[in-house]
Design a protein that fits this description.
Structural class: alpha/beta
Helix content: 40-55%
Number of helices: 11
Low-confidence stretches: 1-7, 104-117, 189-193
Number of strands: 12
Distance between the termini: 54 Å
Shape: globular
Largest sheet: 6 strands, parallel
Strand order of the largest sheet: 9-8-10-11-7-12
């Protein structure tokens, strides 16, 4: 519970209903917490099946004890975000609900506290602070903090690439690494990469745009440009990384499902002293030529159980984009499984 909120709880005994009263110390922040026309409270009511009655800076939550406690946790978490100067959107509210409703045993990395007392993982840069919006995001962010090599595996929209770049930017700002190295296989370009106009940065920029977008979210644009010019943020096409040792650097390989086994082995063995390596990809979206094995799939099999390497797997429940994205991912997943088991119907 946030230290600046007052909590009272009364059990109604026979009716088995909880009655929780939350009092916030800032009326302006309380209003932002409720949302326009109390839309954030309405979303909590809808998702958790509880009743929330606002009165000034005080909220009364009534409902099933477990659901009421989940609402309390979510509201306390969202209020803490507002206290740090951030704004709330629907995705923040949905993320808080996902985190609040996750059972303690769903936390995939060990923690010192139970979920009821534990704050969601966060990544803080000078420009913004990002909070985990799902259990797997929480596990991923904690893995990035603790481990030197992390694989983030899962569908589009789960935040695996965005959070990797955010963590790298945070490490650079804190002086924990000396540079950021971004890499992504340009599978679509093939041999035509050399015929694209401009220098190497210009040639690979279209394939690294998602990484740039995340960087600009984390750091002021002028600092990003200066860092690129100075080589502090480096664009390193995968094909040109052979023979290098990447020490004291946060190294990100995105779209790793489109590497060959040889490329993946080459990349992973670039890790040097003081370095951190983050590999992201979606094994269901392989764009390699037919009959070509994915280096990501091979690496996950070969490195399974190796100490010091953490793999966090995302699914459609972790999608933090438009709600339809999660439905699309789920539909394709069902179709893929149907084809694999031979139960799909002919067109």
């Amino acid at each position: 519970m946030n230290a600046k909120t007052e909590l009272k709880s009364v059990s109604s005994g026979a009716s088995d209903m909880a009655h929780i009263v939350l009092t916030f110390d800032n009326n302006k922040l309380a209003s932002a917490l409720y949302g326009q026309f109390d839309e954030n409270l309405a979303r909590l009511e809808q998702k958790l099946g509880i009743d929330i009655r606002p009165r000034g800076n005080q909220l009364t939550i009534k409902g099933d004890p477990s659901a009421a406690e989940q609402a309390r946790w979510a509201l306390d978490h969202l209020y803490a975000i507002l206290q740090k100067g951030a704004e709330l959107g629907q995705s923040d509210v949905d993320g808080a609900i996902r985190m609040a409703t996750a059972a303690d045993d769903q936390l995939t990395l060990p923690t010192l506290e139970r979920k009821g007392k534990m704050a969601a993982a966060q990544i803080a840069t000078r420009k913004r602070t990002i909070y985990a919006r799902s259990v797997n995001q929480d596990a991923y962010m904690r893995a990035l903090e603790r481990s030197e090599m992390v694989f983030g595996i899962g569908p589009a929209g789960t935040g695996k690439t965005y959070l990797a770049v955010a963590h790298a930017a945070m490490m650079l700002e804190r002086g924990l690494v000396e540079r950021i190295v971004l890499s992504r296989p340009a599978v679509e370009a093939g041999e035509r990469l050399g015929f694209l106009p401009g220098d190497m940065k210009d040639k690979v920029d279209p394939y690294l745009r998602p990484l740039y977008d995340a960087l600009y979210d984390m750091m002021p644009a002028d600092k990003v440009e200066r860092a690129i010019t100075a080589g502090v943020i480096e664009i390193a096409p995968l094909a040109f990384m052979r023979g290098r040792t990447l020490g004291h650097a946060a190294v990100i390989l995105d779209e790793a499902q489109n590497t060959t086994p040889m490329q993946m082995k080459m990349f992973l063995t670039r890790l040097g002293d003081g370095g951190r390596m983050i590999v992201t990809g979606d094994p269901t979206q392989i764009d390699l030529p037919p009959n070509t094995k994915s280096g990501l799939v091979e690496a996950l099999r070969i490195l399974d159980g190796v100490p010091g390497i953490v793999t966090v797997r995302f699914n459609e429940k972790d999608v933090v984009r438009h709600p339809l994205v999660a439905e699309i991912v789920s539909a394709y997943d069902r179709d893929g499984k149907a084809h694999a088991t031979g139960t799909s119907q002919p067109n």
